[in-house]
Specification:
CATH architecture of one domain: 3-Layer(aba) Sandwich
CATH topology of one domain: Glutaredoxin
Radius of gyration: 37 Å
Mean pLDDT: 82
Strand order of the largest sheet: 5-4-3-7-8
Largest sheet: 5 strands, mixed
Shape: globular
CATH superfamily of one domain: Glutaredoxin
Low-confidence stretches: 14-41, 68-83
Distance between the termini: 102 Å
CATH class of one domain: Alpha Beta
């Protein structure tokens, strides 16, 4: 090769090197890529390592779901102390305070006290939980009334915050469901606050001596009466009528939050 051709080849190699992006790997077959290059050329497709982070995340999600399901299954049976309200063995507060009933009378807890005990039901008109348990609750309450237990249903919702909880709607509900006991307005939500009630429905059962012996929910299945396994309120009423200890004194009250008056 003469000097002109050699010079021309050197210029071409220098131009190709200048056009190559900085830090780019050498072209395939370039010996510099195979001998001591700090960035050797990777041959073939890149190999992927195990996706350990994703796998661990999925396992954690599955464990959390299992734990959540277990917690939900046990939710009904968890005893919950009444924060700032009643404890088991307490007497009903504000027992002499008169409240307006759907039949126009003014009644108090003392007025409805029964020979065997007293059942206080915090309820309302529109809550889906109240509606789900409604027929069972009314049937249990009417039956308890026949067996010597006084019954009163209390609506503590502020009608200005809860549409459908006005006095006329309460009257209509009492007629429709066949309540044979007073359904009263808790003005200012005073009784609910004194009891520590926060949900609808939420029940408090007192024995013949006026001591709280059961607090909580109706049973363990709001959706399907045929699937009920634990009849919490029915069992408590039976025990009070017979003078026995209540088998389960507290359960979790599930329902809608009471819309307290300001």
């Amino acid at each position: 090769m003469d000097r002109g051709a050699a010079r021309h080849a050197a210029v071409r190699r220098a131009g190709a090197a200048a056009r190559r992006p900085r830090g780019a790997p050498d072209a395939p077959g370039d010996r510099r890529a195979d001998r001591g290059s700090p960035c050797p050329v990777r041959r073939g497709p890149a190999r992927r390592g195990p996706r350990r982070g994703v796998t661990m995340h999925r396992r954690l999600v599955r464990r959390r779901r299992v734990l959540a399901a277990a917690c939900c299954a046990a939710l009904f049976a968890i005893p919950v102390p009444l924060a700032g309200g009643l404890s088991l063995g307490d007497a009903p507060p504000l027992a002499d305070v008169k409240m307006r009933s759907v039949d126009g009378r003014e009644v108090s807890l003392a007025d409805v006290r029964g020979e065997k005990g007293t059942l206080v039901i915090f309820t309302c008109n529109e809550c889906p939980y109240v509606k789900g348990w409604e027929s069972r609750t009314v049937a249990l309450a009417n039956r308890a009334l026949e067996r010597g237990i006084g019954v009163i249903a209390v609506n503590s919702n502020d009608p200005g915050k809860s549409r459908g909880d006005g006095f006329e709607q309460m009257q209509e509900r009492a007629r429709r469901t066949g309540m044979r006991y007073p359904y009263v307005v808790d003005e200012g939500s005073r009784l609910a606050r004194a009891f520590g009630a926060t949900r609808t429905p939420e029940v408090f059962l007192f024995d013949a001596e006026g001591r709280l012996v059961y607090h909580g929910t109706i049973d363990d299945n709001v959706k399907d009466p045929e699937a009920v396994r634990e009849h919490f309120l029915a069992d408590a009423i039976e025990a009070v009528v017979e003078g026995r200890p209540v088998p389960r004194a507290e359960t979790k009250a599930l329902g809608c939050s009471i819309k307290f008056a300001s």
